[in-house]
Design brief:
Blueprint (H helix, E strand, L loop, with lengths): L2 H15 L11 E2 L3 E4 L2 E5 L12 H14 L14 H13 L4 E5 L2 H12 L5 E5 L4 H10 L2 E5 L4 H17 L6 E6 L11 H10 L3 E5 L14 H4 L8 E5 L9 E5 L1 H10 L1 H4 L6 H14 L2 H22 L12 E7 L1 H13 L2 E2 L2 E2 L9 E6 L6 H17 L6
Parallel strand pairs: 3-12, 5-6, 5-7, 7-8, 8-9
Antiparallel strand pairs: 1-2, 2-3, 4-10, 9-10, 11-14, 13-14
Length: about 400
């Protein structure tokens, strides 16, 4: 065996011994609420398709029509020959929906985050980020070479202390060109929400700029379902809106919304945009159809059903116990602790027909493994109740876990 393979095998063995080895699990078929794995159908409570739009007839029809008209690929980057009319139409739609001057499409949410932060922040900037920001934002920060500080999750007092120290530094020792605050509106691995109004108040008090990732909030909050910033009435005070088309919007790709000047700047400076093939036309057309649905009456109804399902599952998890927590998002957690225990509980649920993969390090900190349940507008009450009953049975065998 080549030396490199021997070294890599040892690393894989260590991961396996720690309960951290990952393998790709082949999915043979998808329905609105089910997936087929190993030849058997399983209820899907792991998807981010919160509104169930990925299989909506109008979304599929739009993807098919655009693929027929434009082909399967955009055939080039946005700055060469890949900036198709379907992309521009979606950008205009996103900007109007988000009530921003302009929008810019990327091939994925990861590409948007990892491209926008290094384009805006340099070595002369200070970046203050919530401890639980997504890996795409963290990687963007690392690429930026900006000075980086972490504040404790949703701890506004800690953030303000860092801002005060930064202001003193600017006044007396070294000047930061800009100070950035990076946060999410809904944190994907905890299911909780950010205190967005306080974030906005602090960034304005100290002259900072706020980049807000609405990946898991878009489609579920606000009168137009654009996200938590809209619901809190501060959308116009967010400097950079970051989002994805691959969750509630039911397609794929990422976007940035903001001022026209911001978007023009990113077109010239964002490497993940400049050096990537543009999104497939079918995906962008599907996203445009989904946004139209979300912003209409059907979107309102689907959003309402998703919240009802989340509350029902939360109630089912609590059972007769007095530990019912307020539902903040469509993400509900079973905190397990050790990775091996999370693997075993996930396997037990799979045997009962429920697909919920374990979330382990490095996605979450060591010793904080969990099962992450996500609900959709497509789930029925019977399916919600089935999952809750199965979880209660498994939790009796794993008293170390907590919801």
């Amino acid at each position: 065996m080549p030396l490199l393979d021997e070294q890599l095998r040892e690393e894989l063995e260590r991961l396996s011994n720690d309960g951290l080895l990952r393998r790709l699990r082949r999915i043979d078929m998808l329905t609105s609420h089910e997936l087929h794995v190993h030849g058997h159908g399983r209820l899907d409570f792991s998807s981010n398709d919160y509104l169930g739009l990925s299989r909506h007839p109008r979304v599929i029809e739009a993807a098919q029509r655009a693929t027929k008209d434009w082909g399967a690929s955009s055939r080039g980057s946005r700055l060469i020959c890949g900036s198709l009319a379907v992309h521009h139409e979606l950008e205009e739609l996103l900007a109007a929906w988000k009530d921003q001057e302009a929008a810019l499409l990327f091939s994925s949410g990861y590409a948007a985050a990892s491209g926008v932060i290094p384009a805006l922040a340099s070595a002369d900037d200070l970046i203050l980020a919530d401890r639980l920001i997504h890996a795409c934002c963290l990687d963007g920060i690392r690429l930026s070479r900006g000075q980086f500080r972490v504040f404790q999750h949703n701890d506004m007092e800690h953030l303000e202390n860092l801002l005060i120290r930064a202001r003193r530094t600017r006044n007396h020792r070294k000047s930061f060109r800009r100070i950035w605050i990076v946060a999410e509106s809904v944190y994907s691995m905890d299911g909780d929400v950010a205190p967005i109004r306080r974030l906005v108040a602090l960034k304005e008090k100290y002259g900072a700029y706020l980049l807000l990732d609405e990946a898991h909030a878009t489609g579920l909050y606000g009168n137009r379902r654009t996200g938590l910033a809209e619901a809190m009435g501060v959308s116009s005070q967010i400097d950079v809106h970051l989002g994805t088309l691959g969750k509630a919007i039911g397609s794929s790709g990422g976007y940035i919304c903001g001022s026209r000047i911001l978007i023009d700047y990113l077109i010239n400076r964002s490497r993940s945009l400049i050096f990537s093939t543009a999104p497939p036309p079918g995906a962008s057309a599907a996203a445009a159809a989904a946004v139209g649905l979300i912003n209409g009456e059907e979107g309102r109804v689907r959003c309402q059903v998703t919240w009802e399902n989340a509350r029902r599952l939360n109630q089912g998890f609590a059972g007769n116990q007095n530990n019912l927590k307020t539902v903040q998002s469509a993400i509900l957690l079973w905190h397990v602790g050790e990775s091996q225990a999370a693997l075993e509980l996930s396997s037990r649920l799979l045997d009962q027909g429920i697909f919920v993969p374990p979330i382990r390090y490095p996605t979450v900190p060591k010793g904080e493994a969990r099962l992450r349940f996500t609900v959709s507008a497509e789930h029925t009450h019977a399916q919600i109740d089935q999952v809750a009953e199965s979880v209660r049975k498994c939790s009796a065998l794993a008293p170390q876990g907590a919801f």
